[in-house]
Sequence to fold (114 residues):
Amino acid sequence: VQLQASGGGLVQAGDSLRLSCVTSGPAFDSYAMGWYRQAPGNEREFVARILSRGVTNYADSVKGRFTISRDNSNDTLYLQMNSLKPEDTGVYYCNARRLAVDYWGQGTQVTVSS
Fold:
């Protein structure tokens, strides 16, 4: 499966962004999908995940501000990010996981200025 993330940009603290990840390949609805991010000098960290049946979980740092969703009819993953903070800055990667195999997109840059 191939993943193409988009929707990043430069925003101010308190603003919102919506990231999208379009996938190609069969059986999108069978994959657990997620978002991760990586700030300069830091390791990649988990942000949010949505299972094939729609169950979600979030990193504590984004709970109540970010919402992950998926559209299985369009093979697309979303991340709605509200009340953005400077510490949300980083490259955001979408992830697909099935049968213990991970697939990664190329990432989209999110920069939040204070």
